Amino acid sequence: MNIQEKIEDWWSDAEEYDSYIKQEFQDDRFRAWKELFTEHLGGKTNLRILDIGTGPGFFASVLADMGNEVIGIDCSDAMLERARRNAAQLNVNPRFYKMDAHHTFFEEMSFDWIVSRNVTWTLHRPEEAYMHWKKLLKLGGRLLIFDANWHRQFYDRETARRVREREEKYFEIYGKEFKVCTEDKAFYDMLPLSNTMRPRWDIDILQKIGFSHVSVKEDIGSRVYEEWEKELYSESPLFEIEAVNGQSSEPPDGEMWS
After folding, report:
1. Hey, what domains does the chain have and what are their CATH numbers?
2. Which of 10, 74, 131, 141 has a CB 3.0–4.6 Å from the CB of 137, allowing a cystine?
3. DSSP letter string over 179-232?
4. pTM assigned to the model
């Protein structure tokens, strides 16, 4: 089994993640993400948007609900099955396809926006993927990435200690166990970004391959998370990266990196 097959097998059980996504559709997080995307899109609709690593289809469904033409891709059949169900329940119609994020089948310069959440850390050739995504964007098109340093506790003892404390506090408050990430370190060791400090790495790569106006918001989770997530995930805050393909007169709204 090659590394891509191992990654696909890792995500073959979609039930737990789908349960999390279903809750997002039903609580304030749906509104919070919609407000965030509204700010980024600047009131524009009918954009052609690619959601890479769509999972159970949350981003794809939210953006379709906002009046855009959305395509979601994922390497997992199980995730895509749930994405189609979730979209149907919301009465929206994004299209979903099984594809490898490193090499899609779309024509170059096909999309106004590309979005992803918690995807880049899963890639075994992330720089190659970013180069491919850039080719898919129209000139002036935007890349919007949400991710975190999810596995630092496996490579830093002090981070691990603080993560365990937060897990214990979560158990005390809610009466159930929750692991920030599972103990499958051998799997994380296969992936090049597991022990890489981000978003610095992403910024360097995106600028090197020709993206402009690269901006970062270091803790976007404070806007879109519920209180329990803010507490539990504070050692690995969700960051946002926005980058423009080519030059643009409208730079992203965030801390500019150079």
Report:
1. 3-256 (3.40.50.150)
2. 141
3. -SS-S-HHHHHTSTTTTS-TTHHHHHHHHHTTEEEEEEETTTHHHHS-HHHHHH
4. 0.93
